[in-house]
Amino acid sequence: MKAKEFIERYYTERKGTSSLKWDALKETFGADDLIPMWIADTEFKAPECVIESLTERIQHGVYGYSYVPESFYEAVMDWEYTHHGYKLQKEWIRITPGVVAALYWSVNLLTQPGDAILALTPVYYPFLDSIKDSGRRLVACDMAYEKGVFSFDAAAFEKAIVDNDVKMYILCSPHNPVGHVWTYEELQTMLKICKKHNVFVVSDEIHQDLTFD
Ligand SMILES: Cc1ncc(COP(=O)(O)O)c(C=O)c1O
User: Fold this and answer.
1) How many structural domains comprise the chain?
2) Which of 18, 56, 94, 142 is most buried, with most CB under 10 Å away?
3) Which residue range is the domain that position 133 belongs to?
4) Which residue's CA lies nearest to atom 7 of ligand 1?
5) From first to last of its 213 residues, what are the pLDDT tens digits of the chain?
6) Alpha-carbon distance 177 to 40, whole Å?
7) Are 199 and 166 spatial neighbours (Cβ–Cβ below 8 Å)?
8) Are residues 90 and 101 both part of a single domain?
9) Is the dihedral of CA 155, 143, 180, 170 positive or negative?
10) Which of 19, 48, 66 is the last residue of a domain?
11) Cβ(20) to ligand 1 under 6 A?
């Protein structure tokens, strides 16, 4: 679908719908006439098939307790395999109310209070909050920056791990906010260093489908 056609079909005004992005501007930033680029939240409707399926569920009219059906797991596994060639097993999947909740849970499950946890900065701010709010030690390692391009500095990364006895690294892949899609080699280097120093890697891949060749 061409961009123009996509916009005409899916663009939707969100102001006046209790939208955090648009309707909380004044409360958050003190002015209404701002372009809220801080949040990953679009002006585009979900695909028709999603809206139809949700509408059908809502029309049923009873919203009692439900369980996670087999078709849910199959959908997740099929998506990962079809789009990323990654074969998941059902037993590996856990359900959380969101990615940020999963970050907090991982930090609490896999490390002890006072442990050092590494993030490559700048990074999506809840990474930093999940570490600090959980009584862990934040080790922020700045990405290298030159002429508007952020990149991975392997030496600084390893030094930060060794100097601080880091126990966990929270990876953002692709990286928000710098927009970097890690190369295979960069990921190999990162993960080898983590393995060498026994560092758990928690990888937030929420933006995995937003990569373009
Ligand atoms: C890297 C990253 N992780 C997680 C989230 C949010 O995930 P959730 O809303 O499922 O907690 C965002 C949203 O911008 C994000 O950029």
Assistant:
1) 3
2) 142
3) 97-204
4) 99
5) 899 999 999 999 999 999 999 999 999 999 999 999 888 889 999 999 999 999 999 999 999 999 999 999 999 999 999 999 999 999 999 999 999 999 999 999 999 999 999 999 999 999 999 999 999 999 999 999 999 889 999 999 999 999 999 999 999 999 999 989 999 999 999 999 999 999 999 999 999 998 776
6) 10
7) yes
8) no
9) positive
10) 66
11) no
Nearest atom within ligand 1 for CA of residue 41: 14
115 and 200 share one domain: yes
- DSSP-H helix ranges across 19-153: 20-23, 25-29, 48-60, 70-84, 99-110, 125-133
17 and 47 part of one domain: yes
The verdict on 59 and 80 lying in the same domain is no
User: Are 114 and 141 members of one domain?
Assistant: yes
115 and 76 fall within a common domain: no
Q: Is 206 in the pocket of ligand 1 (CB under 6 A)?
A: yes
- The position carrying tokens 């002006």 is 43
Same domain, 132 and 142: yes
Mark whether 118 and 186 lie in a shared domain. Answer: yes
Closest CA to 157 of 147, 168, 143: 143
